[in-house]
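**Sequence with structure:**
===
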Amino acid sequence: MLGSELELEIKVTDPRLHEWGLPTYQTELAAGIDLHACIDAPLAIEPQAPAQLVSSGLAVLMNEPNMAALVLPRSGLGHKRGLVLGNSVGLIDADWTAPIAISVWSRLPPGSDPIIINPGDRIAQLVFVPILRPRFRLVAAFSAETRRGDRGFGSTGR
């Protein structure tokens, strides 16, 4: 099944999204939809301070066991301004229907100016991905060996 054939329910939990922009792909080949900061006033994200949760103003119903959504940083904000996600990647399970929150953090060094997020700013993106849900079989030893085996981190060299 191709993604464009799939239809999901999106619920707007902050009516300002009707003004700022409902979820949409910004270009015809974009992988994700932008998420807006649904806040009431500018928010200062201080360098190295604890992560803060920002409402996206929307919820989604996937209800499909072979699907999940990932909240990812917007590349330009992380690279140019230092705004990243407090949890690296946010995982939205298929049965989660509450409003999506975005964990934001400033990776800038102490002493830098805070990052200011304004109401309606696009601060993250949501990407839908397929999920494999294998069954598990408990074993005492694996049935096959691989070239790398269990040698761990760095075992393939530089």
